[in-house]
Backbone:
């Protein structure tokens, strides 16, 4: 198995390495040599796998809990790399004794709070879970979705708490977008479902989660969420490089420490699985990095009522006799003319023409014209002369600045392991695997949990 994988790895650069050397047709001698090394490798593999291996680790047995328990923590806007801004001993304790996405967790597009939090708990791309922006309008009814909309019609897919309810298991949500929505067997029960209130101290949130561990062992919820608004809050106001953000990171580290210490005192720390993530990153924005839609007037006059969101996700829905295709073509003519300030920093697409990797077309809720703006740039209707610098997110998820963190710590995560970056739609299957239940169909891959989690003993 090992040798096959290595062979595949060797072939990859060859595929991309075009024309640098002559023919790759192997000579007889070369074929013989590779056949011999294959035999050696197989012999070695047989020997290796038939001996008991003390270094190969497996799932660690639970000492106290009767079943696995997962605590899913989100620190909003925790850009990948923030963990190095200052000393973060508690986060590093999870990293060093757990499994980390070495170059960060990749958010879904658009890299906004609600779409991403809901992708994490459903395993679905936004068109399939329905939360395609933090706010949007239903094109059929005209109803408006906001971050305070708790009617189930908006929230498609099956979030983890509903999956658990379907399996007769208990979940407890201390804030998470969508958690207050009654869906299927999930009724947002009073004892285990907190209604969003941003004024509750982070410490109180942690203490409430710790209290669940004082319940009789079989009543401890098997899945818990914990949400913190920071450091997103500071990142927007002052940009990612300000010392206010550093302080916010420090504070998040200390509430993580409070959770770890509490679990340790109760004797559960090594039994519990902690998954710490963010929803997206953050990038600095400033005065001169602006594109104005009014500047496109010589090509096409964009009406204010067409613009469903400006920035960083530009979403336009022309009405009346205007065809979306014509509007998009004319906008791009203006943007690429060289006569529009920062025009080369924005490109618009009919949603069906967006790069496929963004998975942002397959929903009536998505307006027909979507703009992709370069990181750090913002789109506005007209010049206001306002001077302001801050931070933003929502850009193409290919930007490194939009990445966030993934750390898994617990009995099924290897200690000190680094894994390649992956998209957050994989997390749903990861959690259902840890809890050993069958989840709903989603956009994560079946192979992912096996590639990350320790094998059973
Ligand atoms: C890391 O795990 C080992 C057990 O393998 C344990 O002895 C050690 O205390 C842990 N370190 C921290 C910082 O939790
Ligand atoms: C929100 O939490 C704060 C702090 O705990 C509390 O004083 C306030 O009453 C809460 N608001 C609501 C609407 O529950
Ligand atoms: C659309 O075009 C039709 C036919 O050309 C015209 O009668 C109608 O007034 C136009 N509507 C708008 C909103 O411009
Ligand atoms: C995502 O999952 C949904 C629901 O299972 C499915 O309809 C859709 O085709 C999937 N999309 C991708 C890109 O995998
Ligand atoms: Zn966010």
Residues:
């Amino acid at each position: 198995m090992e040798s096959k994988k290595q062979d595949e790895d060797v072939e990859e650069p060859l595929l991309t390495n075009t024309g640098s050397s002559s023919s790759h047709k192997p000579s007889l001698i070369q074929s013989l040599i590779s056949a011999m090394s294959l035999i050696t490798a197989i012999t070695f593999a047989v020997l290796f796998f038939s001996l008991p291996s003390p270094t190969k680790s497996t799932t660690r047995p639970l000492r106290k809990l009767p079943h696995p328990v997962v605590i899913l923590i989100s620190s909003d806007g925790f850009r990948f790399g923030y963990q190095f801004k200052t000393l973060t001993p508690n986060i590093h304790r999870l990293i060093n004794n757990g499994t980390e996405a070495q170059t960060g967790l990749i958010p879904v597009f658009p890299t906004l709070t609600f779409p991403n939090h809901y992708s994490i708990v459903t395993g679905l791309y936004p068109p399939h879970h329905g939360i395609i922006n933090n706010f949007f309008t239903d094109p059929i009814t005209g109803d408006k979705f906001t971050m305070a909309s708790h009617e189930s019609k908006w929230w498609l897919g099956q979030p983890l708490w509903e999956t658990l309810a379907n399996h007769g298991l208990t979940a407890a949500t201390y804030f998470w977008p969508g958690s207050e929505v009654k869906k299927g067997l999930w009724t947002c029960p009073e004892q285990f479902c907190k209604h969003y209130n941003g004024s509750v101290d982070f410490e109180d949130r942690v203490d409430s989660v710790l209290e669940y561990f004082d319940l009789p062992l079989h009543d401890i919820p098997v899945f818990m969420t914990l949400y913190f608004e920071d450091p997103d809050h500071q990142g927007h106001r002052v940009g990612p490089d300000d010392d206010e953000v550093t302080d916010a990171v420090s504070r998040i580290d200390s509430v993580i420490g409070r959770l770890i210490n509490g679990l340790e005192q109760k004797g559960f720390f090594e039994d519990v699985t902690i998954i710490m993530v963010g929803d997206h990153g953050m990038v600095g924005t400033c005065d001169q990095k602006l594109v104005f839609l009014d500047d496109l007037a010589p090509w096409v006059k964009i009406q204010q009522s067409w613009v469903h969101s400006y920035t960083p996700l530009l979403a336009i829905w022309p009405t009346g006799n205007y065809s979306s295709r014509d509007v998009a073509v004319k906008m791009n003519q203006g943007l690429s003319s060289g006569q529009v300030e920062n025009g080369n920093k924005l490109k618009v697409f009919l949603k069906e023409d967006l790069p496929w990797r963004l998975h942002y077309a397959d929903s009536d809720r998505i307006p027909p014209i979507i703009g992709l703006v370069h990181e750090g740039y913002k789109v506005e209707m007209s010049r206001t002369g306002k001077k302001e610098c801050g931070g933003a997110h929502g850009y193409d998820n290919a930007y490194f600045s939009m990445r966030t963190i993934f750390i898994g710590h617990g009995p099924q995560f290897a200690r000190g392991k680094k894994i390649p970056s992956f998209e957050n739609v994989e997390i749903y299957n990861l959690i259902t695997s840890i809890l050993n239940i069958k989840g709903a169909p989603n956009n994560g891959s079946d192979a992912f949990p096996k590639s990350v989690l320790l094998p059973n003993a």
User: Anything to note?
Assistant: The pocket of 2-acetamido-2-deoxy-beta-D-glucopyranose (ligand 2) is lined by residues 197, 199-200 (CB under 6 Å). The longest strand covers residues 70-75. The CA atoms of residues 19 and 75 lie 47 Å apart. The longest helix spans residues 28-50.
